[in-house]
């Protein structure tokens, strides 16, 4: 049976062989608890801290600002709950196209949804209007996991900085923090936290050819969070529990690899992406921004089609794709991202997401196009 064409890299990526090699010693040989005091355990502790330092270097941060988590969802929850639990009566503002890992915790507090335009990009003026004197957290994802649109993170960071200065002038004691979910952005975009102007950043190893259930939360120095997992005080008292050293080391290696190659790989995928779009029948519609989008993302509406039926037909033809976020695929309801962008329920349920990766070729997308034309003719 031939290997299928895999076009769902936004959901999961295969483990890079170099990442597996970096992780290998920590399963059996260097299995020690890094909190133990004897020498072999301290060697493991050194490997853990080296991984933290390697990640910090990529982000332009300091080691203690990197908190290891078990993936992106935990990281987002720590960011949202960790801030909001400290300020009873305050509110949080998030974009209407966030992943459920941000939306679900935000909905447990007073919250506002900042609207997006038809391209899936936050409207800065409307975001500013959603922020009031009781807002303590703004969370806007760097790159959307469904339609691939890129948010103006640097401009939002500048807005947050200006609003904080205005609060000081008005003697408003509440801080205003900025969190971004950068899980989909890590393989292709700049992650320097100072240039972006973020206080908190979420990253996920499972999206960058690292191990699943690995990730980090960047926490700007001096920022206090309420821990969500209490116990032995690991991870600077923010995430208790014996660290998964293999996953931490694997995450660091994966992040280094994708960031080193991000310009080259981004250009390669963008070429394939644009070649595909140029051949798209006029009746099919690309969702999200045409220019401000991830180079590996193609999200298309096929008017009148049933996306669930189409997914099954594609799989039978040897092509694996998605109707949207893998975390929401079982709900059977129209995507909240597409609805926030103004798509009707009918069009939302006639749309598919194709996300490429480092093994994707132009030949594979040619086969995808031919298969889609055949299925929908």
CATH level 1 class label of the largest domain: Alpha Beta
By CATH, the topology of the largest domain is Aspartate Aminotransferase, domain 2
Total DSSP helices? 13
- Approximate helicity band: 25-40%
Count of domain modules: 2
Distance, first to last CA: 27 Å
Low-confidence stretches: none
The mean pLDDT is: 96
How would you spell out the order of helices and strands? EHHEHEHEHEHEHEEHHEEHEHHEH
Strand content: 5-15%
Using the 3D structure, state the CATH architecture of the largest domain. 3-Layer(aba) Sandwich
* CATH H level, superfamily name of the largest domain: Type I PLP-dependent aspartate aminotransferase-like (Major domain)
The value of Rg in angstroms is 21 Å
Shape: globular
**Main beta-sheet strand count, sense and barrel state:** 7 strands, mixed
Task: Report the strand count.
Answer: 12
Q: What structural category arises from helix and sheet content?
A: alpha/beta
- With strands numbered from the N-terminus, the spatial order across the biggest sheet is 2-8-7-6-5-3-4
């Amino acid at each position: 049976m031939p290997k299928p064409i895999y076009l769902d890299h936004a959901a999961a990526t295969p483990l890079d062989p170099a990442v597996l090699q970096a992780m290998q010693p920590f399963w059996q040989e260097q299995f020690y608890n890094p909190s133990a005091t004897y020498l072999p355990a301290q060697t493991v502790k050194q490997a853990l801290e080296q991984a933290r330092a390697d990640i910090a270097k990529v982000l332009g941060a300091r080691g203690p600002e990197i908190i290891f988590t078990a993936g992106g969802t935990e990281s987002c929850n720590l960011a949202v709950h960790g801030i909001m639990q400290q300020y009873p009566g305050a509110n949080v503002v998030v974009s209407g196209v966030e992943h459920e890992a941000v939306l679900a915790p935000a909905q447990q507090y007073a919250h506002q949804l900042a609207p997006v335009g038809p391209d899936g990009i936050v409207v800065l003026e409307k975001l500013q209007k959603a922020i009031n004197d009781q807002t303590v957290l703004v969370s806007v994802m760097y790159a959307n996991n469904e339609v691939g649109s890129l948010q103006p993170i640097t401009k939002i960071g500048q807005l947050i900085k200006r609003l904080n200065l205005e609060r000081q002038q008005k003697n408003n004691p509440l801080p205003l923090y900025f969190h971004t979910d950068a899980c989909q952005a890590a393989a292709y975009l700049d992650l320097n936290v100072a240039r972006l102007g973020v206080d908190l950043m979420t990253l996920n190893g499972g999206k960058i050819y690292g191990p699943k259930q690995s990730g980090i939360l960047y926490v700007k120095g001096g920022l206090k969070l309420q821990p969500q997992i209490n116990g032995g005080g690991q991870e600077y008292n923010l995430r208790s529990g014996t660290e998964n050293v293999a996953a931490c080391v694997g995450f660091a290696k994966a992040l280094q690899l994708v960031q080193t190659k991000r310009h080259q790989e981004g250009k390669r995928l963008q070429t394939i992406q644009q070649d595909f779009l140029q051949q798209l029948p006029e009746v099919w519609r690309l969702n999200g921004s045409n220019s401000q989008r991830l180079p590996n993302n193609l999200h298309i509406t096929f008017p009148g089609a049933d996306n669930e039926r189409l997914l099954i037909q594609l799989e039978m033809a040897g092509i694996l794709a998605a109707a949207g976020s893998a975390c929401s695929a079982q709900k059977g309801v129209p995507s909240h991202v597409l609805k926030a962008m103004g798509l009707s329920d009918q069009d939302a349920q006639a749309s598919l997401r194709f996300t490429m990766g480092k093994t994707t070729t132009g030949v594979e997308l040619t086969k995808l196009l031919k298969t889609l034309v055949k299925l929908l003719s």
